[in-house]
Amino acid sequence: MGKLSIIREFLEFLRVRKKWWLTPIILMLFLLGALIILTEGSAIAPFIYTLF
């Protein structure tokens, strides 16, 4: 439940402060982190790490 309140609070911050330009940055950071975590133990990991 704690994680959901953080997301809700972040969305409220974006709405009130009109900081919608932060949304793509946060989304890309989340997707890159998920990509690294999910491919960590797979056979394609060496190919993913060469992109960075």
TrEMBL record:
Pfam families referenced in this protein's UniProt entry, alphabetically: DUF5989
Membrane-traversing stretches: 21-49
Keywords for the protein's UniProt record, in alphabetical order: Membrane, Transmembrane, Transmembrane helix
Name listed for the protein in its UniProt record: Uncharacterized protein
Species name: Candidatus Scalindua rubra
